[in-house]
Amino acid sequence: MNYRVPQPVPQVILDDVRGAQKMLSGVSRVTAMEGSRHLSALTGSPVHLKCENLQRTGSFKLRGAYVRIAGLRPEQRAAGVVAASAGNHAQGVALASSLLGVRSTVFMPVGAPLPKVAATQEYGAEVRMHGQVVDETLAAAQEYADRTGAVFIHPFDHRDIIAGQGTVGLEILEQCPEVRTILVGIGGGGLAAGVAVAVKALRPDVRIIGVQAAGAAAYPPSLKVGHPVSIDDPITMADGIKVGRPGDVPFKIIGELVDDVRTVSEDALSSALLLCLERAKLVVEPAGCSTVAALLSEPELYGGGPVVAVLSGGNVDPLLLQRILRHGMAAAGRYLSLRLRVADRPGALAGLLAVLSVVDANVLDVSHVRTDPRLGLTEVEVELHLETKGPEHCAEVARSLHGAGYKVMSQ
């Protein structure tokens, strides 16, 4: 019988993160820290946004990728590197490799957004499309590494990657020394682990809160049983944290140093993206604003001192952004869909629209249905899509329609 001997999990310490910070000097940006009046009022504590969406390549991933590749031996660099990613890690590896003069190959899923594919190529990587899901893409990249000798650059499960990501934590302490709580999105766990290593070594009193999308939350069940477990078919719009199994190295660190892991809904993610765009004037991808979603979902948990929410990335496909913004506006009560029946006679629709005009509801779309067998001979069903000003305005619209004698069938 063959027995698999467990491998010790490498440790990551503060000196590793400090060494990474020196290595990244002049390579990665010290990203801005922006205050948020809206979130501060909501939580009762000052809230600051750490804008890694403004990092080179549009996310924190460059930090870890550069440290990992810079640490390779000369013969390893000569063999080149390979990675698998749907977006952020791909771009981080591509740029880091170009800066270090290393040949890079990046495998991406067939359905990866075209802007992310183009950006990865422009940063200097050879892109190969393979598989429909990231697991298939990872397998292809690993097979390529085994066949060619190229070094596989894992997106989160390596001590150098974690040390590089931990430099975000050092910057937070320098920019907001009075911080009491830091929120970090979690996919595989590299960023949260790195931030926890840096911050807890210097400020053990600071709370570190990880955030996962509820449909792709592998950490809560893993932490409960004490080892990484996989979840089947993770589903979330936040593809940057859509990871089915925690990494071994970050899991150990997160289990020891992260104070809590919260989950957020898809509605909260889309509302957070909309808030970042409207209030902070920041384009943030769904995974990048998971921390803001946590603040919106449970603001009462974050009182008692300054809060820093890490915006981990801003690489969002424009088509997806359009859909998410619509979803976010609906979740925030800014869209209202109604279905009702009116008399099938001239002027009936004009009368309905007049009621909506009085309450200042903007009509985006109107459709008529006359062929439904459930309708009476003199009835027509009208479906309306309205732009509103929030939940209270939605309620006002519904009251006005009822007051005018209209029976709303669904909303």
Overall 3D geometry? Answer: elongated
Q: Report the radius of gyration as a whole number of Å.
A: 25 Å
Number of strands: 14
Strand content: 15-25%
On the 0 to 100 scale, the average pLDDT is: 91
Largest sheet: 6 strands, mixed
Q: Kindly state the percentage of residues in helix.
A: 40-55%
Strand order of the largest sheet: 1-2-10-7-8-9
Can you tell me the residue ranges where pLDDT is under 50 for at least 5 consecutive residues?
A: 1-6
Count, helices: 17
CA(first)-CA(last) distance: 62 Å
Strand-pairing-aware structural class = alpha/beta
Can you walk through the features of this model?
This protein is α/β, with parallel strands linked by helices and 411 residues long. The chain has 17 helices and 14 strands. Helix 3 packs across helix 5. It starts with 13 loop residues before the first helix and ends with a strand.
